[in-house]
C-alpha cells in the first residue's frame, strides 16, 4: 500500500528551524507545501496549501505565541506542532491547553520530527476526517443548543464563547449557528462583519453540500465558523424547517460541534433544532421569573418527549447575591444545576468590543466554566472506538 506524503507547512522562526526544513525536504513521508516566517501574512497561501500539519517555530521561551497561533488557526484547522530551541517544559502545558498538538525541542533528528508529524496527522484525521470543505470521511458532529425562554439570559454570549472554547482550546471544527433568526447578534458578539448569512444559504439554488456550506460561513480568527442570522428580521421566515433540517445534516458531516443560539421562544425552527440536538443547555438565572419560565420549558420538553439525558441546566450569573440559591433553583425545577457561569463585568465589555472573553481572558472564571461545559457535553475522544456522546437521533414525539 502506498501512503501519500503528509503535507506540512512551516511557519515562524526558531534556532535550528532551517535544518528541520532541509531534513524534511528530503524525507519521503513528508511534502513541504510552504513556508512563511510571519503567519499573519501567510493567509491565503496557508489556507490554500492543503497543509495537514503546521510546524510553527518560536523563539519565545516562557509563553505560547498566542497571536501567531491565532493567525494560523484563523485559516486552517490543521494540527499545530510548536518547534522551539528554548526549554519546552515551561510552555508545554500552556501549549497543550491552547490546543497545540505537541511541542518539539530542537535540535531533533528528522525522523523524530516526522514521527510527531505522523502522530499529529493521524489524530487529526481520526478526529476531523479531513478538510472542512470536502470531508473524506463524514463526521458526526454534535449539536449543542442553548435555550432560555427569557431574553437576556445570556444565550448568545455563552454560545459565542462556548464555540470559541471548542474551536480554540479543543481544536474542534466548530460551527456557530445563529437561529435567533429575527434579532440574532452572534456576528456582533464575535466582532465579524459577515458577507453572507443563513438567508443567502436558504435562497441559493445550488444543492447544499459541505463545500457549498463552507461558502456561506465566515471564519473567525478563533477557528470558529459563523453562520449568522439574516440581516433583516423579515427574512427570518424564509428559513423553513425543511431547509434547516438539510442544513443540520450537511453541517454534521463537516463539523465536530455545532453550537446553536436560539431566540427566547419555541417556534418551528427551534423545534426542528431540538429534533437534531444532542445536548440542550438550558440557560437559567437566579431570579424567580426566569425559574418559572424554565419550569415551563421543562414541561414543554416533557410534552415533546425530549430525553432527560440530553437536558442540562446552566445557571448563568451565579454568585450574584440576589437572595436565591442554586439549591432552591434545583428544588423548584426538579433538576440538578450541572454548570454555573459566574457573573463577570468584563463580559459586557467583551460584548461591546466584539471579542469573546474566552479569547481575551482564557483564564477568567467564565472561560474556565465554559471549558467544563465543553468537556462534559462533547468529551474529547482520545482513543479510537466508540464516541462517548450518544449519537443523535430523532426523539420520538408520542402523541
Ligand atoms: N455571566 C455573565 N456575567 C456578566 N454579564 C453577563 C453574563 N452573561 C450575560 N451577560 C450580559 O447579559 C447580556 C445579555 O446576554 P445575551 O445577549 O447573551 O442574552 P440572550 O439570552 O442571548 O438574550 P436574547 O434572548 O435577547 O437574545 C450580555 O450583553 C452580557 O453583557
Ligand atoms: Mg441572544
State the low-pLDDT regions, or none: 128-136, 383-394
Bound molecules: adenosine-5'-triphosphate, magnesium ion
Roughly how many Å is the radius of gyration? Answer: 22 Å
Q: Indicate the structural class.
A: alpha/beta
Query: Which sequence of SSEs, written as H and E, runs from N to C?
Result: EHEHEHEHEHEHEHHHEEHEHEHEHEHHH
Query: Helix tally?
Result: 16
Overall geometry comes to globular
- Rounded mean pLDDT is 87
Record the strand order, biggest sheet.
Answer: 8-9-7-10-6-11-12-13
- How many β-strand stretches? 13
Largest sheet: 8 strands, mixed
Give helix % range. Answer: 25-40%
Measured distance between first and last alpha carbons: 54 Å
Descriptive notes:
- The chain is α/β, with parallel strands linked by helices.
- The protein is 39% helix and 18% strand.
- The protein is built from 16 helices and 13 strands.
- The protein has helices spanning 17-25, 43-47, 66-75, 89-97, 110-128, 155-169, 186-190, 198-203, 210-214, 241-254, 268-276, 288-303, 326-333, 345-353, 357-360, 365-377; strands spanning 6-12, 30-36, 53-58, 80-84, 102-105, 142-147, 174-178, 218-219, 225-227, 257-261, 279-285, 311-318, 337-342.
- Strands 8-9-7-10-6-11-12-13 form an 8-stranded mixed β-sheet, with helices on both faces. The chain has a 5-stranded parallel β-sheet with strand order 2-1-3-4-5, sandwiched between helices.
- Helix 1 links the parallel strand 1 and strand 2.
- Helix 6 crosses helix 16 (365-377) and helix 10 (241-254) runs parallel beside helix 11.
- The longest helix has 19 residues, at 110-128.
- The chain starts with 5 loop residues before the first strand and ends in a 22-residue tail after the last helix.
- Mean pLDDT is 87; it is low at 128-136 and 383-394.
- Residues 155-156, 180, 261 line the site of magnesium ion.
Amino acid at each position: 500500500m502506498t501512503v501519500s506524503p503528509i503535507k506540512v507547512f512551516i511557519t515562524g522562526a526558531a534556532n535550528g528551524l532551517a535544518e528541520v526544513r532541509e531534513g524534511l525536504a528530503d524525507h519521503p513521508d513528508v511534502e513541504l507545501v510552504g513556508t512563511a516566517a510571519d503567519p499573519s501574512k501567510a493567509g491565503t497561501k496557508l489556507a490554500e496549501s492543503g497543509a495537514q500539519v503546521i510546524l510553527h517555530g518560536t523563539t519565545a521561551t516562557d509563553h505560547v505565541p498566542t497571536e501567531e497561533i491565532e493567525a494560523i488557526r484563523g485559516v486552517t484547522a490543521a494540527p499545530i506542532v510548536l518547534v522551539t530551541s528554548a526549554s519546552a517544559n515551561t510552555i508545554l502545558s500552556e501549549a497543550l491547553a491552547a490546543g497545540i498538538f505537541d511541542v518539539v525541542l530542537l535540535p531533533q533528528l528528522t525522523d523524530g520530527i516526522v514521527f510527531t508529524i505522523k502522530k499529529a496527522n493521524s489524530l487529526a484525521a481520526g478526529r476531523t476526517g479531513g478538510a472542512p470543505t470536502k470531508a473524506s470521511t463524514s463526521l458526526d458532529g454534535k449539536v449543542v443548543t442553548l435555550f432560555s425562554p427569557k431574553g437576556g439570559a445570556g444565550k448568545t454570549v455563552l454560545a459565542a464563547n462556548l464555540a470559541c472554547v471548542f474551536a480554540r482550546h479543543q481544536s474542534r471544527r466548530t460551527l456557530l449557528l445563529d437561529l435567533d433568526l429575527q434579532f440574532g447578534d452572534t456576528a456582533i458578539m464575535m466582532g465579524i462583519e459577515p458577507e453572507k448569512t443563513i438567508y443567502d444559504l436558504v435562497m441559493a439554488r445550488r444543492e447544499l453540500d459541505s463545500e457549498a456550506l463552507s461558502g456561506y460561513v465566515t471564519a473567525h480568527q478563533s477557528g470558529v465558523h459563523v453562520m449568522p442570522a439574516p440581516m433583516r428580521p423579515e427574512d427570518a421566515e424564509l428559513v423553513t424547517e425543511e431547509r434547516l433540517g438539510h442544513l443540520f445534516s450537511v453541517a454534521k458531516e463537516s463539523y465536530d460541534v455545532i453550537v446553536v443560539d436560539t431566540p427566547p421562544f419555541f417556534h418551528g425552527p427551534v423545534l426542528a433544532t431540538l429534533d437534531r440536538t444532542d445536548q440542550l443547555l438550558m440557560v437559567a438565572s437566579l431570579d424567580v421569573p426566569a425559574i418559572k419560565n424554565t419550569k415551563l420549558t421543562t414541561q414543554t420538553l416533557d410534552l415533546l418527549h425530549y430525553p432527560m439525558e440530553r437536558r442540562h441546566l446552566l445557571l448563568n450569573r451565579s454568585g450574584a447575591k440576589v437572595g436565591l440559591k442554586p439549591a432552591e433553583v434545583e428544588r423548584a425545577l426538579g433538576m440538578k444545576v450541572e454548570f454555573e457561569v459566574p457573573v463577570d463585568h468584563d463580559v459586557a465589555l467583551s460584548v461591546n468590543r466584539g471579542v469573546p472573553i474566552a479569547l481575551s481572558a482564557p483564564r477568567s472564571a467564565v472561560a474556565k466554566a465554559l471549558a467544563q461545559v465543553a468537556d462534559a457535553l462533547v468529551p474529547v475522544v482520545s482513543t479510537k472506538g466508540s464516541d462517548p456522546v450518544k449519537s443523535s437521533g430523532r426523539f420520538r414525539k408520542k402523541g
